[in-house]
Design a protein that fits this description.
Helix content is 62%, strand content 0%. By secondary structure, it is mainly alpha-helical. It is elongated, with a radius of gyration of 12 Å.
Length: 68
Protein backbone atom coordinates (compact mmCIF):
# COMPACT_ATOMS: atom_id res chain seq x y z
CA UNK A 1 0.00 0.00 0.00
CA UNK A 2 2.86 2.34 0.76
CA UNK A 3 4.33 1.86 -2.71
CA UNK A 4 0.95 2.41 -4.36
CA UNK A 5 0.41 5.56 -2.29
CA UNK A 6 3.77 7.00 -3.32
CA UNK A 7 3.23 6.10 -6.98
CA UNK A 8 -0.20 7.73 -7.10
CA UNK A 9 1.05 10.90 -5.45
CA UNK A 10 3.98 11.05 -7.88
CA UNK A 11 1.57 10.87 -10.83
CA UNK A 12 -0.38 13.78 -9.43
CA UNK A 13 2.72 15.94 -9.38
CA UNK A 14 3.77 15.27 -12.97
CA UNK A 15 3.14 17.65 -15.82
CA UNK A 16 1.42 15.06 -17.99
CA UNK A 17 0.80 15.47 -21.73
CA UNK A 18 -2.88 16.11 -22.49
CA UNK A 19 -3.15 13.13 -24.83
CA UNK A 20 -2.50 10.64 -22.00
CA UNK A 21 -4.46 12.43 -19.26
CA UNK A 22 -7.57 10.21 -19.67
CA UNK A 23 -5.56 7.01 -19.31
CA UNK A 24 -3.55 8.31 -16.35
CA UNK A 25 -6.74 9.65 -14.76
CA UNK A 26 -8.36 6.23 -15.09
CA UNK A 27 -5.31 4.48 -13.68
CA UNK A 28 -5.18 6.79 -10.70
CA UNK A 29 -8.91 6.35 -10.07
CA UNK A 30 -8.42 2.58 -9.83
CA UNK A 31 -5.39 3.03 -7.58
CA UNK A 32 -7.39 5.38 -5.37
CA UNK A 33 -10.14 2.76 -5.09
CA UNK A 34 -7.58 0.17 -3.96
CA UNK A 35 -6.19 2.58 -1.38
CA UNK A 36 -9.73 3.35 -0.18
CA UNK A 37 -10.54 -0.33 0.25
CA UNK A 38 -7.70 -0.60 2.78
CA UNK A 39 -8.51 2.60 4.67
CA UNK A 40 -10.93 2.21 7.57
CA UNK A 41 -13.71 4.76 7.61
CA UNK A 42 -14.40 4.67 11.33
CA UNK A 43 -10.95 5.68 12.54
CA UNK A 44 -7.85 7.54 11.43
CA UNK A 45 -5.03 5.15 10.51
CA UNK A 46 -1.89 5.48 8.38
CA UNK A 47 -3.91 3.99 5.51
CA UNK A 48 -6.61 6.64 5.92
CA UNK A 49 -4.01 9.40 5.93
CA UNK A 50 -2.36 7.91 2.83
CA UNK A 51 -5.71 7.77 1.02
CA UNK A 52 -6.56 11.36 1.93
CA UNK A 53 -3.19 12.68 0.76
CA UNK A 54 -3.31 10.69 -2.48
CA UNK A 55 -6.86 11.79 -3.29
CA UNK A 56 -5.94 15.44 -2.77
CA UNK A 57 -2.86 15.12 -4.95
CA UNK A 58 -4.58 13.43 -7.90
CA UNK A 59 -7.93 15.21 -7.79
CA UNK A 60 -6.86 17.27 -10.82
CA UNK A 61 -6.52 14.08 -12.88
CA UNK A 62 -9.95 12.60 -12.14
CA UNK A 63 -12.03 14.85 -14.45
CA UNK A 64 -10.08 13.43 -17.41
CA UNK A 65 -10.90 9.79 -16.61
CA UNK A 66 -12.30 7.56 -19.31
CA UNK A 67 -15.92 6.53 -18.63
CA UNK A 68 -15.19 2.87 -19.38
Amino acid sequence: MSLLHRAVRALGRQDLPAQIAPQIGSLTAVALAVLRSHAPRSEITPETVAFNKASQTISCLLPATEPA
